[in-house]
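Hi V.,

Quick status before I head out on leave. The structure for the redesign project is tokenized and pasted below; the design run finished overnight.
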């Protein structure tokens, strides 16, 4: 029987959990690379160039944040739309998406590089510093960053598409190579040849260039399912890409504005030491924000595929994984950071009696509490993007990115000092969770009693509960029982006895084949997730497993073997099916058979 979805996890969600956790390490590493490179640059700048070099790096930060916001727009939009196309088995559409995405980021890169060069010219208006030496160092740093703009944007785009192809090892290699090259080039250009901030920026650009080259080889060698075509200048696709990705991009812009306002409040009520303490805690914790960002990246892909397939169960399973797996994991990481607050503070300040030491230590004690709460708002924002819930997405973007933190900081700073800013960030997470719950209550006009209601999944999305059957098979002993459930489901929906028997046979043969040949290949625990849907008088059976990829050409060979008796069960299934299709989605084998 069909299992009723609830807010609690149930036994049939392990396949999606394993998938997401398998993809998670690479996505965390990709999110951490920029933070690691930033830490490397800061260490070389402070130790080998001087304090003014750090000022130049800080003055460039708003420009870098703007470039990052555009990158987020294209990456998040590409992953969500690509997932929908894969879920709909529209693989050819992804070449259009890939081409438009690469052309769009390439055009933006060219404009940005030109602007940066013009910005360094004498007499350019809008100077951010009146000090001639700082301005000279900033100009050198900007010129060194120019060659890295295109590799940055294209590299992050290729990472998104490699993830959709389940090629995490190549992104891992690119990330490790990038860090190694950045460190080596910093030593060569900054320490040995003393090129100052120019060398600092060139080292970063070199690391980004290597990152792009390692990833690009897969596409240039023709091994990718995504192909670049200059003829794909599709404005409609570009508009859709921007529409889907802009909420995440706006959030980045809101965060930039929030930083300006928070800094002004800290200066007014605490002073420059407050800025130092807040920046110190934020800088170090930035490395650990790669974890929730990596969690979001894997869920974003799964959300897109689930919505493309119109699969209510997997869609809710992805959100369950976020709430019941990712949030506790992030809470554990936050707890470790809190316990190590004093030791972490000693990495930066050595006088425990100094005011800045105490303020920084409190930052390490309070700010980590934001991380598990952020997983909730980030995932609901991502789900809202994928499902076109524009009001919820826009509301969370402005509240999470700007309003809540600034409002709570303005209220608490005069009373409890810098801890008011720290507490405001935690209250921001609680406030966003409350908004998500209230949104569900308002739309449904009742308290949500299960995950579908909390997510406000439309009633017309996918197959209705009474028209679908979701099951999991973990061993041959379960195949016969599940086969009977499939047959009984078909009979209840009015399917004639002959086709009901064919559907049961298809399930038994295909699931049995996966268990017999797929499960033993790597010695790991596996399961076959089955989804049986009744629609317009037809029965659709979808088999999903996380075994090694199954080559569709092998399937064709099965149908015409030299031995007529070989694979006869599978050949009967393919012969009686109205339609059948196979694809590999995010490392999962997905076979669909329509009876």
């Amino acid at each position: 029987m069909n299992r009723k979805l609830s807010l609690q996890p149930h036994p049939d969600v392990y396949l999606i959990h394993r998938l997401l956790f398998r993809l998670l390490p690479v996505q965390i590493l990709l999110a951490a690379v920029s933070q690691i490179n930033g830490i490397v640059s800061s260490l070389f700048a402070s130790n080998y160039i001087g304090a003014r070099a750090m000022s130049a790096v800080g003055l460039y930060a708003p420009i870098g944040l703007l470039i990052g916001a555009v990158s987020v727009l294209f990456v998040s939009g590409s992953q969500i739309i690509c997932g929908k196309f894969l879920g709909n088995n529209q693989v050819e559409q992804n070449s259009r998406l890939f081409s438009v995405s690469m052309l769009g980021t390439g055009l933006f890169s060219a404009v940005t590089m030109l602007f940066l060069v013009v910005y360094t010219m004498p007499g350019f208006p809008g100077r951010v510093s009146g000090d001639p030496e700082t301005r000279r160092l900033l100009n050198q740093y900007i010129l060194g960053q120019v060659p890295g703009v295109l590799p940055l944007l294209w590299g992050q785009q290729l990472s998104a598409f490699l993830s959709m192809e389940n090629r995490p090892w190549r992104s891992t290699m690119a990330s490790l190579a990038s860090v190694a090259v950045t460190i080596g080039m910093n030593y060569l250009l900054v320490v040995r040849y003393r090129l100052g901030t120019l060398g600092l920026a060139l080292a970063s650009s070199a690391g980004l260039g290597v990152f792009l080259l390692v990833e690009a080889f897969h596409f240039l060698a023709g091994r990718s399912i995504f192909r670049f075509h200059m003829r794909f200048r599709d404005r409609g696709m570009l508009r859709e890409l921007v529409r889907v990705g802009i909420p995440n991009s706006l959030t980045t812009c809101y965060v930039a504005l929030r930083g300006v306002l928070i800094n002004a409040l800290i200066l007014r009520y605490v002073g420059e030491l407050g800025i130092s303490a807040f920046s110190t805690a934020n800088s170090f914790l930035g490395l650990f924000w790669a974890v929730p960002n990596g969690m979001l990246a894997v869920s974003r892909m799964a959300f897109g595929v689930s919505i493309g397939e119109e699969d209510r169960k997997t869609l809710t399973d992805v959100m369950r994984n976020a709430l019941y797996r990712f949030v506790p994991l992030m809470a554990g990481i936050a707890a470790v950071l809190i316990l190590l607050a004093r030791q972490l503070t000693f990495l930066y300040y050595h006088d425990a009696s100094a005011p800045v030491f105490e303020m920084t230590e409190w930052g390490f004690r309070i700010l980590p509490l934001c991380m598990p709460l952020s997983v909730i708002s980030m995932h609901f924002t991502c789900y809202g993007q994928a499902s076109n819930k524009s009001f919820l997405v826009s509301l969370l973007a402005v509240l999470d990115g700007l309003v809540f933190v600034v409002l709570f900081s303005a209220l608490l700073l005069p009373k409890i000092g810098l801890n008011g800013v720290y507490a405001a960030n935690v209250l921001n997470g609680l406030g966003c969770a409350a908004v998500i719950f209230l949104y569900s209550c308002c739309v449904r006009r009742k308290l949500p009693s299960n995950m579908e209601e909390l997510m406000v999944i439309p009633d017309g999305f996918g197959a209705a509960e009474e028209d679908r059957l979701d099951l999991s098979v973990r061993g041959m002993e379960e195949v016969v029982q599940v086969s009977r459930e499939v047959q009984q489901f078909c009979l209840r929906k009015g399917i004639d006895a002959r086709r009901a028997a064919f559907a049961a046979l298809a399930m038994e043969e295909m699931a049995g084949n996966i268990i017999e040949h797929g499960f033993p290949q790597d010695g790991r625990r596996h399961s076959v997730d089955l989804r049986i849907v009744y629609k317009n008088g037809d029965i659709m059976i979808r088999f999903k497993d996380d075994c090694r990829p199954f080559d569709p050409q092998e399937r064709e060979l099965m149908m015409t073997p030299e031995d007529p008796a070989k694979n006869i069960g599978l050949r009967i299934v393919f012969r009686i099916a109205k339609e059948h299709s196979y694809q590999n989605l995010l490392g999962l084998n997905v076979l669909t058979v329509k009876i």
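Above is the designed sequence. The chain is about 70% helix and 5% strand.

G. will cover questions while I'm gone.

Best,
W.
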